[in-house]
Amino acid sequence: MAADQGNRKQIAPEMQLPPGKKPRKRDIIAAQKIIADISSGLYRSPAAAIKELVSNAYDADATQVEINTDPPTFRTLTITDNGTGMDIEKFLSVMEHIGGSRKRISSDKSPLLKRKLIGRIGIGLLAVAQLGNRFYVSSKIRGNKTRFIAEVNLDPYHKDDTALLSMKSVTGDSVQIGAIQYVDGIEEDEDLHYTVISVPDAKKGLTSEITSLVRQAVGATDVFNIHTHPAKTFAEILEQVSNARRADLVLDGYHYMLWELGLLCPVRYLPKTPFNAELRTIEGLTSLTIDQPARFSVTVDNILIGRPQSFPNPITVGYSSPDPKLYSINHEDEIAGRKLAFHGYIYSQQPRIEPEELRGLHIRIRNVGIGNYDRTWLGYPFNEGVKFGQVSGEIFVSEGLEPALNIDRDSFRETDVHYQALKAHVWDILRSQVFPEFKSRQKAYTTKRRQREQKESEKQFVAALNDLPAPLAEETVYEHVPGGMIAAFRQSKASLHVDTVQLRELASELELSKDAQERLTKVLRVLISSELLTDAPDDDFQMILRALALAVK
């Protein structure tokens, strides 16, 4: 790891075409099937676009990815990784086949660390187009004595839909969407290996989102703000969000982007997350299995990014309810000739999951988050009311489902058989275990709570009796009739006897509930301990007893 870090510190290539060398040019070719996506924007947020570049770095055996957004002006965005890099031939080949990744033709794993591949180089590079119409790529392979630098320009083809329709067709199913100028053979340290992507002029839409202009328009009040109060660590962001109803109401656009990168990128949980049993007992925690990538980190402006899940949140720690519970998920099968394997959990807590962005189900394929949490639980067809706000889950897919991904790698094609199988499995757990147990666990909790309260109440009651003139002695005899009525009290100084049959008849006649009988018993104990009934004639006592029974009914 130390060697990797040393390599990182030396990576600072000049990110512009070198003067004095005439650049060569090449067209950028894309499949027609993705042109509509290009025109409307492939990704719903800057974090979703950056995730694709991070995924490419992961596939290139990088151990570190460093992102610099140039805050607070955001003039230049730079993404640097210490992966194996690529030469100019591979880069040009990728840009000539956008829309149909060639990454996995030779292998399904990375060459050095044998990671299962997760990204698509062509689509990943195209993600930069959403960050800026013009960007630079420079890369170096370990052992090579030179690097290349390329300027990619998509500006002429992103002005409007008319421009897209008028683009030059290269073949029957592909079109030219941009141009590249590049220079290779630039001398570089032989031991270095990296890829650097730089966007010198970020799009105004990106800058607006990061600087929270939209959020300001709706009156959101943020705790962390890049201009006035920036966070120093991801843990600070996580702590603040854990105390909030919504993450986007306490974070400005910049910090929300960091939070969302933690949700989407193949990074690790922070210490004591996603579950901290020191805060409150969590049932089922010992059987939990979760996936985390090894030897891989992402930093943004020197902030180490982590996954944003953290349970139980503060509102749950002291809440009177059943303890939070985990339901483990493990499934492996072969469907339509393809293996499907996934595991994960469904987590429930009361009174609700906070922040709201963590309600629902989040799916990770090879540690990469696919979109945000699905609050519908893959279209769960039954109405569970407020229970939907009390459950959260993660699915880690190790085999299969990937063909169901849409081109943005942010959503699924729901007709895919693997997607349908996963949906059915999750629905079955919700329907047969999670939601039915809400009622049974609440009932059991309420019973235990009442027993504790009654025990404490009885303790306090006995203490109060002991302060009276003639408290019942320890040898007091309690003879119980059906329903819990005390038939007789015997003291050391005097005795008071109640006919069991008469008492039973009185309880039946007045239809005294069990609670009423218990209240009557306590009143009698107080009166006896106060020596107010010891010398009462039997006839008077019977009238007093009847009056008390009616009073507590």
Quick recap:
With 553 residues, the chain is α+β, with helices and mostly antiparallel strands.
Strand content: 15-25%
Task: Give start-end ranges of low-pLDDT stretches.
Answer: 1-6, 101-106, 474-488, 490-496
* Helix and strand composition category: alpha+beta
Mean pLDDT: 84
Rounded Rg? 34 Å
Task: State the end-to-end distance.
Answer: 76 Å
Number of strands: 17
Which bin fits the share of residues in helices? 25-40%
The 3D shape can be described as elongated
Largest sheet: 10 strands, mixed
Q: How many domains is the backbone divided into?
A: 3
Our count of helices gives 15
Give a structural overview.
There is one protein chain. By secondary structure, the protein is of the alpha+beta class. It has 3 domains: 2-202, Heat Shock Protein 90 (2-Layer Sandwich), CATH 3.30.565; 234-439, no CATH class; 488-552. It has 15 helices and 17 strands. It has helices spanning 2-10, 35-40, 46-59, 88-95, 121-131, 161-165, 204-210, 213-217, 234-242, 253-264, 314-317, 417-465, 500-509, 514-529, 538-552; strands at residues 24-31, 64-68, 77-81, 134-140, 146-153, 169-171, 174-187, 194-199, 297-300, 303-304, 325-335, 338-348, 360-365, 368-369, 391-399, 488-490, 495-497. Mean pLDDT is 84; it is low at 1-6, 101-106, 474-488 and 490-496.
